[in-house]
Amino acid sequence: NICASEADPKIITAESGQDVTLTCRAPNNTVTVLNWTRSDLKPEYVLLYQHGPSDSTHQHPSFKNRVDLQDTQMKGGDVSLILKNVTINDTGTYMCRVFMNETRSWMNISFVYLVVPPGE
Question: What positions does the domain Ig-like occupy (predicted)?
Answer without folding.
Answer: 1-110
